[in-house]
Amino acid sequence: MGRILRCMLLASLCTLTGLSLASESQWRLVKDEAGVQVYLAEVPGSRYQAYRGVTLMRTEMARLLTVQEDVVASCAWVYACEEQRLLASDGEVDWLYTRLHTPWPVAGRDSIIQVRTRTAADGSVKRQLRGVPDYLPQQPRLVRVSKFEGFWQMRPVGEGQVEVIYQAHTEPGGSLPAWLANSFVVDVPFHTLLALRRLVEAR
């Protein structure tokens, strides 16, 4: 199955160049609740902000990776996820299809994400996320997310804890109301990390 990042998904929104241009000084804390911090940053040339979610999870790295790689069950913790499936896997690279729920009357979105997973010498794991919208033909009645760039960074910090960072920037495609776009950049990292943490910490 590969070390796919299912959650990456939802998010369903982001851009690598934009992320690199968002320097550390530009990130501002907009939510700090239930042990999850959400930061936002402006992205030059984009109407949509980049987001970064940070939390600590009381779990072992092996369990966290196992939960993330369960494609069938991933929509239980990926915010606004309606469907997610593995399209292909080739060594450390996976391709993931995600269909997202949006409130009426906004058209539903789907995305195709390439996930490249690397493990460092210190045991930390990074999943680099990149949208590949042309990997499959567009589906009827769905708007394909046009750009997505981001990453998951998971680092053991001792005492059975893992620091998890989920960062991304998205161009959702089509017409998206400002209120929905603004809520998504906060809700996606917050609810995704909160749900994932609850799942991996449950025994």
UniProtKB/TrEMBL annotation:
Entries under Gene3D superfamilies matching the protein = 3.30.530.20
Which residue ranges does the record assign to the START domain?
Answer: 16-203
Concerning SUPFAM superfamilies, the annotation shows: Bet v1-like
**Listed GO CC annotations:** cytoplasm
The UniProt entry, under InterPro entries, shows: START-like_dom_sf, START_dom_prot, START_lipid-bd_dom, START_lipid_transfer
Signal peptide annotation: 1-22
Q: Which Pfam families match?
A: START
Which UniProt key words apply to this protein? Signal
Gene Ontology molecular functions: lipid binding
Q: Does the keyword Cell inner membrane apply?
A: no
PANTHER family assigned to the protein according to its UniProt record, in alphabetical order: PHOSPHATIDYLCHOLINE TRANSFER PROTEIN, START DOMAIN-CONTAINING PROTEIN
- Which protein is depicted? START domain-containing protein
Annotated organism of origin:
Pseudomonas xionganensis
